[in-house]
Design goal:
Length: 84
C-alpha cells in the first residue's frame, strides 16, 4: 500500500506561486530552465497541484523565497523546515 499523497508531496498555493513568479518577473518556461525542473512540473505547481518537495525546493531557490512561503498550509511545516 502506498503512502498518502499529502505525506510525501507538497501542495503549493496557486496565488502565492503566481505572486512569487510575478515578483521575479519569470514565465513558467524561464523558471523551469533556471531551476532545472521540467516545465510541466512548474505548470502543475503553478496550478496548485501536489508536487515533490525537491521540485518546490528548486523553484523556491530561483524565486528567492522559502518553500514554506509557497505552500498552501504553513501550519503543517515543522519549525526547522520553516526556518530554512
Amino acid at each position: 500500500m502506498s503512502a498518502a499523497k499529502n505525506t510525501v508531496m507538497l501542495k503549493p498555493d496557486s496565488k502565492k506561486m503566481l505572486v512569487a513568479m510575478a515578483e521575479a518577473e519569470l514565465q513558467p518556461k524561464e523558471l523551469a530552465e533556471k531551476s532545472g525542473v521540467p516545465v510541466n512540473i512548474v505548470y502543475i505547481a503553478r496550478r496548485g497541484y501536489y508536487v515533490k518537495p525537491v521540485y518546490l525546493g528548486k523553484i523556491s531557490k530561483v524565486l528567492q523565497v522559502r518553500v514554506a512561503d509557497l505552500i498552501e498550509d504553513n501550519e503543517n511545516v515543522p519549525e526547522q523546515a520553516a526556518a530554512t
